[in-house]
Amino acid sequence: MLGIGVTATDTEIGKTVVSGALAAAMRHRGYKTGVYKPAASGCVKNSDGKLISTDAEFLLHCAGLNVEKHDQVVPYVLEAALAPAEASRLAGVKIDPCVMLAGAREMLLGSQISIVEGVGGISAPLTDEYLVKDFFGELKLPLVIVVKAVLGNVNHAVLTAEYARIHGLKVVGLIVNGWDRKKAGALEQSNLYYYEKLTGLPILGKLPVLSQHLLDEFNSRELAEITEANIDIDRILSLAGGTVK
């Protein structure tokens, strides 16, 4: 049993894409792979009127899990595109951290390796008193931080890494999302340099911009191949715990 937590410097940085990419790579290495997200905001209603997390659906497909496991992968689905604490208040839903933790532990115990995606940034409020960092802390999961080589993101990466350390979380490294090698100029290259220099963490890979077709078609094998070519999965596994049983 091995778990890897995925957080990011902000929302819309690409946690779900990177989480799915890691899950696809683990699945196609032959591991029984689990995925989990404690809560999801901005969910949509399906034809039956049920709220569905498209993020959870993507993760399920990447891990090769049946879509019927949707509710096991994400226990709280909320319609408003706000932090779970506020989205749940508007919906009249009470989020119980114990429920989120129990679901995560069940997924971890039932899988050889699980990718656990956070919500928003590491200090995003799941409830008024319970933040994403508390969730990861109780699970004692090693973390990767997803970054994007854009102006201002070095500052966000440094703050995220330091905040995690202050709260006793183990961060194993950074993954750059949306990397375009052909267009990478002084800004992008300097981001790579300062990410490592100022956080003291290694860059574990640079996931390129993925086509919308690939994401929409849930082509997990192709995604796994792209991931293996651009992210150092062996190093992540080693830093996160070394052995997968």
Automatic annotation (TrEMBL):
<dbReference type="GO" id="GO:0009102">
    <property type="term" value="P:biotin biosynthetic process"/>
</dbReference>
<feature type="binding site">
    <location>
        <position position="212"/>
    </location>
    <ligand>
        <name>ATP</name>
    </ligand>
</feature>
<keyword id="KW-0093">Biotin biosynthesis</keyword>
<keyword id="KW-0479">Metal-binding</keyword>
<comment type="similarity">
    <text>Belongs to the dethiobiotin synthetase family.</text>
</comment>
<feature type="binding site">
    <location>
        <position position="55"/>
    </location>
    <ligand>
        <name>ATP</name>
    </ligand>
</feature>
<feature type="binding site">
    <location>
        <begin position="117"/>
        <end position="120"/>
    </location>
    <ligand>
        <name>ATP</name>
    </ligand>
</feature>
<comment type="pathway">
    <text>Cofactor biosynthesis; biotin biosynthesis; biotin from 7,8-diaminononanoate: step 1/2.</text>
</comment>
<protein>
    <recommendedName>
        <fullName>ATP-dependent dethiobiotin synthetase BioD</fullName>
        <ecNumber>6.3.3.3</ecNumber>
    </recommendedName>
</protein>
<feature type="binding site">
    <location>
        <begin position="12"/>
        <end position="17"/>
    </location>
    <ligand>
        <name>ATP</name>
    </ligand>
</feature>
<feature type="active site">
    <location>
        <position position="37"/>
    </location>
</feature>
<feature type="binding site">
    <location>
        <position position="55"/>
    </location>
    <ligand>
        <name>Mg(2+)</name>
    </ligand>
</feature>
<feature type="binding site">
    <location>
        <position position="117"/>
    </location>
    <ligand>
        <name>Mg(2+)</name>
    </ligand>
</feature>
<feature type="binding site">
    <location>
        <position position="16"/>
    </location>
    <ligand>
        <name>Mg(2+)</name>
    </ligand>
</feature>
<keyword id="KW-0460">Magnesium</keyword>
<dbReference type="Pfam" id="PF13500">
    <property type="entry name" value="AAA_26"/>
</dbReference>
<keyword id="KW-0436">Ligase</keyword>
<dbReference type="InterPro" id="IPR027417">
    <property type="entry name" value="P-loop_NTPase"/>
</dbReference>
<dbReference type="GO" id="GO:0005524">
    <property type="term" value="F:ATP binding"/>
</dbReference>
<dbReference type="GO" id="GO:0005829">
    <property type="term" value="C:cytosol"/>
</dbReference>
<keyword id="KW-0963">Cytoplasm</keyword>
<feature type="binding site">
    <location>
        <position position="41"/>
    </location>
    <ligand>
        <name>substrate</name>
    </ligand>
</feature>
<dbReference type="GO" id="GO:0000287">
    <property type="term" value="F:magnesium ion binding"/>
</dbReference>
<comment type="subunit">
    <text>Homodimer.</text>
</comment>
<keyword id="KW-0547">Nucleotide-binding</keyword>
<dbReference type="InterPro" id="IPR004472">
    <property type="entry name" value="DTB_synth_BioD"/>
</dbReference>
<dbReference type="GO" id="GO:0004141">
    <property type="term" value="F:dethiobiotin synthase activity"/>
</dbReference>
<comment type="function">
    <text>Catalyzes a mechanistically unusual reaction, the ATP-dependent insertion of CO2 between the N7 and N8 nitrogen atoms of 7,8-diaminopelargonic acid (DAPA, also called 7,8-diammoniononanoate) to form a ureido ring.</text>
</comment>
<keyword id="KW-0067">ATP-binding</keyword>
<feature type="binding site">
    <location>
        <begin position="208"/>
        <end position="210"/>
    </location>
    <ligand>
        <name>ATP</name>
    </ligand>
</feature>
